[in-house]
Structures are given as C-alpha cells and as structure tokens.
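thoughts on my protein:
***
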Amino acid sequence: MTLHSMTGFARVTGNFDTFNWVWEMRAVNGKGLDLRLRLPNGFDRLEAPLRKIASKSLSRGNVQISLNLNWENQQTVPVVNQAALDQVTRSIEKIDAEINTTPSSAAQILALRGVMELSEPEIPDDILAGLDIQISQSFEKAVTELLSARKREGDALLAILSGHLGKVSGLTLKVESDPSRSPPAIRARLEAQLEKYDLSALDLDKDRMHQEAVILAAKADLREELDRLLAHVDAGHQLLKDKLPVGRKLEFLAQEFNREANTLCSKSNAVSVTELGLELKLVIDQFREQVLNVE
C-alpha cells in the first residue's frame, strides 16, 4: 500500500567550486499545489525549471522552498557611483556660489550615502553554468527527501485511516444486528403508537391500517443506508491500496459517509440505533480530519 501525507520537511546541502548551499523544503496541507520558491538574487533564472522538477513529483500541498547560497571567495569591492558623485558635486558648487563655505574634502564627499557602493564580483560563465547544474541536481535530491518524509507520515496515516474504516464497518454491523430492527420490535412500536392515540375506538379499515404500517416500516428501514455504508468502507480500503494520490477521492468518500450517517440518524426510531448513529458520525468526522492530510 502507498499513501503520502501532504506534510513533510527536507534539508539537503551541496557544494561546487567555492560555493556551498542549503536547500530547505517545508510542506503542509493544501487544496492544490502551491510552490513558493525563495532564491538568492541573480538566480531567478532557475525558478521555472525548478518548479517543473517539483511539479513532476508533487501534486498537492503548500510547499515553502528556500535556497541559502554562500560564496566562500566572494569579496566585495568599493566603487564610486558616478551619477551620485556628479549630483553631489553640482550641489556643492551651487551652494559655494551662493554662500562662502569651507570646501568639502574628498573623504567627506565619499562618506555621503550613495556615493560609494560595494560591488560584488561577477561569477565566470563556466563556473556559473556548472553551479546551475549542481544546484538543480541538489534540488532534485531535496524533492526526493521531501517525498520520503511524506511517505513516512503517509504510512502512519494509512494505519489510522484503516482503523477508522474498521470502526465504521463495526458500528454499521452493530446497527444492522440491533434488536430494535427485528420485525417483532417494529410491530410492537407500531402497536404502541396505535394505543397511544387510542385509535382502537375509531372505525378504521384493517387492510388500510396494515398498508400504512407497511409504508411506515419501509420509511424507517435502514437497509439501503447500511448497504451503502459497507460499500463505502470497501471503496475506502481500495483507495488506500492505490498508488496514485487519492486525497481528494477520500475527501469525497468522507462526505458520502457523513450523508449516510445523517440519514440513518434521521430515520432511526430507536434510542439504541440513534446512539450508534451518533458514534458513527464521530468516527466519520475523525476520518475526515485525517483525510485532509492525504495527498
């Protein structure tokens, strides 16, 4: 059996030449697939191909992905921002023309914000090409690690969901075998209703009364609901064996479970069956909550 959770975490490190990096991925529940990549400045070119890689393996979930990159030999070089320097120089000349001021030293001018900037050296093209390849391959490893984490959580979910299906089946069979559903019990309840309203004093056609009793008994019969509940349990076990993502199908199945349980409770005319129906709804709600974690 294969089942994947939508939650998981992965962390993969890598290095190339004088670069080293860390990929981190965090995934949580989501209706669809929402990939949010945070890449260093200058590496936006990798976003589209990386999204394509992730989308091939992931179908649902909100996934936060970040790349922390470090260049060991990176040394910033101070350079003059010529445009800013020209603007400052013109401003100084304008002020000097209007009022007599002490000339500013070069050091004072260079200390002004924006005049001096730190420039990062460019990465050689051959190194950059190799770096892109290595980062992408490392990304694929991170996706694989995330899948493994989601699989581990999926194994735990599989056991929980199988247990819930077993409880639904057990409660359904309890309703099916409840003494209140036996023909003598149904007949006794109908007779009690007749006596309650003292209908014996009225001139009622016995055949008509029998027909009405049959109709009422049919309306209160739970056979169809019980059969559908057991059929849904079988469908659930089959979905848990599927190798493809089944989260959405399991969500729909939980809705069907709930619909049948509601109908069962509304048609119930015995306290014991109602209590079993409420217990059934509780288990179905627990099943639904866990299903929301399935990819």
About this structure: Residues 105 and 111 are 10 Å apart (CA to CA).
